Structures are given as C-alpha cells and as structure tokens.
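Q: Structure tokens for this one, please.
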Amino acid sequence: MKQRIIKIAFFLIAVVGLNVLASFVFFRWDLTREKRYTISDATKRLLQSLDGQVVIKVYLTGEFPAGFERLERAVQETLESFSDYAGSNIAYRFIEPNDPKLQEELVQKGLIPTNLFANEDGKRTERLVFPGAMLVYEGKEYPVQLLKGNQAASSEERLNQSYEGVEFELASAIRRLTLKEHKRIGILVGHTKVPPPRFSDLLATLQQNYDLYFDVQNPDSWEKGDMLIIPKPDLPFTEEEKYRLDQFVMRGGKLVLFADGARVDSVSLEGTFAQPSELNLDDLLFKYGCRINQNLVKDLSCAMLPLNVGNMGDKPQIKPMPWRFFPLINNFGKHPIVRNLDAVYTRFPSTIDTVEAPGITKTPLLLTSQYTKLLKAPVLVAYNEARRQPDPREYNAGVKSVATLLEGSFSSLYNNRLLPNDPHMSTFIGQGKPAKVLVVSDGDLLVNDIDYAREAPFPLGYDRLSGKTFANKDFILYAIDYMMDPEGLITARNKQVTLRPLDKIRLKEERMQWQLLNLLAPLVLIGLLGGAWQWIRKRKYAA
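A: Here is the predicted structure, written as tokens:
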C-alpha cells in the first residue's frame, strides 16, 4: 500500500514538473509530411522582434463550402502559431461581415470581395464574402488579400495555393506595418520618356517598404542605394554611365532592368514599326550572362484588344480581338518569386537568351507558352493582324524566356580595359561581391494605365477590356523582396501542401460501406478490448 502511494506521488510530481517546464520552454513538433504547421525562421524572427501590438481582423468566417473552411482554418492555425512566437504582440479576431456598411467600408479600404455560389435546398444562392484581413498597428491599417493563386487553375487548386500563401501574406503585411529602417532604391528615370504618372502605382507601393530616390542622369548618386531600377529606358547609356552601373553591381548592388528589345513607336498607314532598341547595354548584359534579343514575340496565349473589324451601316463595329503581340504569361520557372503567381500581362516583349558566365546562376522566371512566333526587328506590326486566323503550324518557336534572374559574383566588363593612368583605376573592382541582376525584356510590364476621366492611375496590370488586374505588381514586388533579402520572408512562399482528393467514383459506389466501417469499427474495437480485459481479470483472480 505504501509503495502504491509513493508511485502515485511520483507520478503527480512528474506531471506538475512537466507543466511547469512547459511554461518556460516552448517547443512544437510538426508530424506532417509537408511541415504545414511550421513557419519559416524569417517569420519567427519578425514576430519575436515586434515592439508593439499588431491587431489582425479576419473577415473570412461564416458558413462556407469545404474549400473556404479549409482556408479559414489555415488562417486560424497560422495566427495561433504567430501568437506562440509574438505573445501579446499579436491579437486577432474573426469578424463575419454581414453589415452592408461594413462591406462598403472594407471595399474602400482595399479588400476585394468574392461572390460565393452555393445550392441550398435545391436553390442556387449567391453571397458576398471577404477572403481577407485588415491589420492595424499604431493607427495604421493595411489590407491583406488571402484568396490568391493562379486563376487559370481549378477552384480547388487555387484555394490550395491560397492555403500555401497564408503565412507569407500575413507576415509580409506585418513587416510593412512595423518596418522601422528602410533600404534605399534608386529609380533611374533619366533615360525614359514615359511620364511619371505611368509609374505611380508601383512607386506608391514601393514607398511603403523602401526609401526611394530619383536620378536624373546623375551617376554620382547611384552608389547611395541598395538597388537600382531602370524602368523602360528609351535613351542610350553613355560609357561613363555604363561603367557606373558595372561598378554598382561589383560592389554587391542589385540591378533591375525593364527594357524592350524592339521599340514600337513609329506609325504608318499600315501599322506601327518595331525598331531595334539601342541602349548601349548589350555588352554589359552579355558579360553578366544574358542577352535581350532585338525581336518581338507573338504568342497564341495573349490578351484581347478592342479593334474595329468593319462598319455596320455608318458606324464602326468594335469587337475584342486577340492581339498576339501582348502575351499573357502563365508559365513560370521554379522559384519562390513566381510560385503560385497569377498571369502577367505583357506588351511587345522580346526574348532573352542566356550565355556562358562563370559562377553565375541563371533562373528563367517568366516564360511564354510553347506556341510562339518570333519577328526580328525592324518589322511592321500591322493593324489588321488581329483579324487574321493564325496558323498554329507557324507558331513553332517554343517556350521563350522574357524575364531572367542572374545571381552570383559577376566579373566586370572593364577588366583589362582601363589604362594604368585612368582616374577610375584607384577605385576599380574587377571581381564583384555576390549580387543579383533581374532582366525583363518588356519595359511596359511596370507601366500602369491612366483613368483620364478620374485623372487617377489604374492599378498596375489592370486590363480595361476584361476589368481584370493581372499579377504584374506582385511579380515585381516579390522579385524586389527576394533580391533585397533572399533569406527573408520570401522563403515562406516555398511552402507546399499537397492536395489529396478522394476518389469521387469510389466514394459514390462505396459510400455506405465506409460509413458503416467508421460507425461500427470503433464500437467493435472497444468491445473486443473490454472483453479481453474482463477475460484477463477473471483468469488472474480465479487463480
């Protein structure tokens, strides 16, 4: 009897000790194959460094189909994990937005609603849901859209892509709200003829995370930033400017170039002419490992444009027609920048080839479809091109890259070129530090349209005809985030959760037997265990 009391006492002490230890030492054990409940190290560092409370209001709650319920659970599980690392600095609540005034307020703040269709009692119903959240920190608010992914995918796949992106979307929004020190990005606007309002949407977004400065052909200022962006250059670079760009990269700077291989501007009665773009950067890019070709890509996967297809009476007949010079990019390389990205809208892109560059990793990011045709500049872009029925046999150029990421320690273009008495020799760097260069062969990819009626910019990637906003801005922001901090929050986009759908045919045929198995098997198991326990007791005490 005494030994039994001692054993019970030891057991109680052990239980209490474990509970006390658990209150001081935090750990979790994720047994899932994809580590779906494990957040990235960068997210943990962000949460542990918070010095104030972030309030997260989630509006994705209510009676939903299974896919949306799964996304809601993913948000709740992610926020629970956030609270484990941030403590009281993360507070969240779920709000069902049934009030029309609240719905209108959320739309004004930037949350995009989704129409959800369902069948209830044989009737088709429609309701408005807000798959998003609003983050509040020190009086500032930031909307987060949680329903993302590629719209060309099925609804199940898109919801799964959104599931995979929950951690990144919430963590990056927290970083935007709480960031104290901003890195610097230089915008080289001195070489473009595009007016500033056409860049306004991207610049306004970048200002939330970075300090921007604008160069007007002042190479002395280029070395002051962490990144240089060259948006749609039209004017050639001088040798001195090219040298400054080269040395910026040699010092470990990040360079982003959005440049056309062929310039489409001159107009004739038959159409517009595409002329080779002369920027004096070909040898620099070739040295770094790529080349923008002086051609145009025609792609059967393309956007639509409203064109005059003839007259009906005395009035022109306007119809949307496929414009194969505006490819819709829905084919991506394997990289966290473009993982689960929606389609990207391009205008007159050129192809990018990679060339040998020792020590440089080349990753294609944006790829055309396999049904492409290449036109070498100079070439006429005829107005009646959209009316012609394309012959698929002519679109046999295959998949082409229109955006390539270069990473590594670059060698200078000016190695063995400078004379000993050259004034640049005192500061010249021949072999660079690890750096990154992003080359995009479409200068219009980061140019937004303008709503002249409201005198306000449209969102970057917005298509007037379809009313859809493509993922141009997401692509640019993800690329910049990765280049600025490759081991940062962007790594959370690598999370992959495999869909394991049930076999619907077997489910329909074997539904009853699986229901009976789930209902009766636990009862039978409990009965067997109880019978075995009674038999052991009887045998023990009968002896």
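A few notes: The chain has eleven helices and 26 strands. The chain has a mean pLDDT of 85.
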